[in-house]
Amino acid sequence: VGDYLLTFGWRNEPALAGLLNGPEIFIEHHDTEEPFEGAELQVEVTFGPATKTMELRGAFGAPGHYIADLIPTRPGDYSFRVFGTIGDVEVDETFTSADGEFSPVEPSSDIQFPEAEPTVAELLARIEALEAQIAEMQG
């Protein structure tokens, strides 16, 4: 973007549902590879129809490294729209795991041991099924 090279991805890959993670971006001057400090950026996260906008902040002790905290709650593909300014340059770039630019979010059950815990979505489905059974018995 302009005179700058942007490198984008998850802070931890593979990204796992239910675990603290978040987007990160490294910014450096294209010609000198020196990190750029002082960017003013936000990131809009999209998963299906849901969106959330967050501030990207400088990572402590790491010039040119900007991060946001996010706990992705569902496995699948996420998109990130990074917008704001790097110096005098306006930025509006979109990165998506669906294009293979970085990993999609994977279920955390893949690394749970000795047995996988049910997801929040699975628990909600069980509760809804039980509520329906109770309503049927009462009716």
Task: Give the neighbour order of strands across the main sheet.
Answer: 1-2-5-4-3-6-7
Poorly predicted regions are none
Count of helix runs: 1
Written as H for each helix and E for each strand, in order along the chain, the element string is: EEEEEEEH
Q: Main sheet?
A: 7 strands, antiparallel
Work out the number of β strands: 7
CA radius of gyration: 19 Å
Helix percent band:
10-25%
Strand content: 35-45%
What does the average pLDDT come to? 94
Describe this structure in words.
- The chain is mainly β.
- The protein is built from 1 helix and 7 strands.
- The protein has one helix at residues 120-138; strands at 4-10, 23-29, 40-47, 50-58, 65-67, 79-86, 89-96.
- A hairpin with a 6-residue loop joins strand 4 and strand 5.
Key phrases:
14% helix; 1 helix; elongated; 139 residues
Task: Quickly describe the structure.
With 139 residues, the protein is mainly β.
Which helices and strands occur, and which strands form pairs?
Layout: E1 4-10, E2 23-29, E3 40-47, E4 50-58, E5 65-67, E6 79-86, E7 89-96, H1 120-138
